[in-house]
Each structure stands twice: as structure tokens, then as C-alpha cells.
Amino acid sequence: MKKIIFGIVLVIIFAVAGGVYYVLNNLDDLVKAAIEKYGSEATQTSVRVDSVKINLTEGAGGISGLTIANPGGFDVPNAFSLGKVRIGINLQSLQEEPYIIDEITVLAPQVFVEINKDNKTNLNEIKNNLMAGMPDKSTAKTEVAPVESGSKQPRLIIRRITFSDGTIQARMAALNDKEYQLKLPSLNMTNLGGNKGASPSELASEILTRLTDLASEEVKKKVIDVELDKLKARAREKVDAEKARLKKKADAKIDEQKNKAKDKLKGMFGR
């Protein structure tokens, strides 16, 4: 279940990168299209956004109604659903890389964790899709491929990213598809990208590890461990009941043998 929410991070970062590269009159529509295009390509699922509002003069941005669909093989429609995302851009940093994002605040994110009948987790599948699209570092130094114009990812620094007031909806085939509603613990991460900055893909990978670990631990603690404890308790009850039944049966057998011995002694002494 690792991992938790990384598709959200990727499309948010692309939204900010889009704000840098598409400074045009119809910026909002272009950023919305960029989020859906690059987000869908990265996660290999459908990414949709209701609206985007970028104000570069104030260094602010917002995204509403962002959803990331589940991969095939899962019943729940979405893996993530966001209400509001607020972005603060450091305007002075836009002159050269690394570009600085002062803050990204994700309000009321919804995370849908599903483990299907094949024991596959939706978040792991999306994570694998994202990782598959990243460059292989083992060959990066020995193989030099031609770079197309505009294909280079910008270097970014995120001063702070916060996820707050989130919820988790967990569903597992092994537990008869029972649904569990959990609170997603708040998460604050700071100084991502270091001093030199990192690409959106690298930042997304870093953030997804923390987020998915957080969500996975919460589901494990509040659902899996609780259900396992219930199973263990029921098993202990059955074992204790069986022990009691066998003891009762053994005691009855002993009492029967005692009574037979008493009757035999009485017969020997004529009583």
C-alpha cells in the first residue's frame, strides 16, 4: 500500500512548472491542460481538473477539483480526489533556475486505498507507473540521448508542502470489500530539492515515499492490525472453548471411572 498520494504531487508540481513556462493570456486553461496531459502520462491513469487559477503578479495559484483515476483492475473510480490546492510562488526566483515554490497547501485530500482480489494495491500500481517513466540513473552517465527542445524538466525547490484535513477510504477484497473511513494524518515537508533544486519527477518521488508510507501505516494500524487482532481473539476463543469442552469431557470420564471403582469396592465388601 505504499504509497500514498504521489500522483497529486506530480500534477501540482507540473501546475507550478506550467505557470513558469506558459505565461500567456490564457494561462489558466493552458495550465489545466498541462496538468491533465502530463499527469495522465506520468500516472498512466486519467487525471482531471475542474479549474485552475494562476496569478503570477501576486505569486499565487490555486487548483480545484483535481482527481486521479484508479488503474484498471480496481472497483473504486478514483485513487485521489482534491478539494483545494493553494500555491505560493517566489517571484524573484523566476529569473533563473532553480525556481522556488514557497508553499504548496493541499486542503482536504481524499485518498482511496484499495487492495483487490489479486492482492494488488492501487497506490502501488500508480507508483510503479510513475517510476517506469523516470530515467534510468544507471545508464544516464554512459548513454547520451539527444534532447528535444523544451523537453528538459525545470529545477525546482519547494520550501514547504502541507497536506491537511485529509481522509482515507480503505477497501480490501480479503475483508469482503468492507469500507473503512480513516483520518489522514497531517504531513509537513520542508526544503525539498536542497540548494540546487530537483526535477518535478524527482520531487514527486521524494514526496510520494513519505506520503504513501504515512497512508500505509495508518491503514495498517487502524484496519489491518485491528482486523488481525479480531481474528486472533476469535481464534483464541475457539481454542479456549475447545479446551474447556475437552476438559469437561475428560473430567466426566474421570468421574465415571471413579464411580465404577466405588461400585466395585462396594460389591467386594457387600455394601
List keywords for this structure.
271 residues, alpha+beta, six-stranded mixed beta sheet, 12 strands
Short description:
With 271 residues, this protein is α+β, with helices and mostly antiparallel strands. The protein has helices at residues 6-21, 27-43, 122-132, 137-140, 200-268; strands at residues 47-48, 51-55, 60-64, 67-69, 78-81, 84-89, 99-107, 110-115, 156-164, 166-172, 178-184, 187-192.
Gyration radius over CA: 29 Å
Strand order across the largest sheet: 1-4-5-8-10-11
* Principal-axes shape call: rod-shaped
Question: Total number of β-strand segments?
Answer: 12
Gap between N and C termini, in Å?
Answer: 77 Å
Indicate the structural class: alpha+beta
Mean pLDDT metric = 77
Total helices: the number is 5
Largest sheet: 6 strands, mixed
Task: Identify low-pLDDT runs.
Answer: 139-150
Helix content: 40-55%
Helix-strand sequence: HHEEEEEEEEHHEEEEH
- Beta-strand content: 25-35%
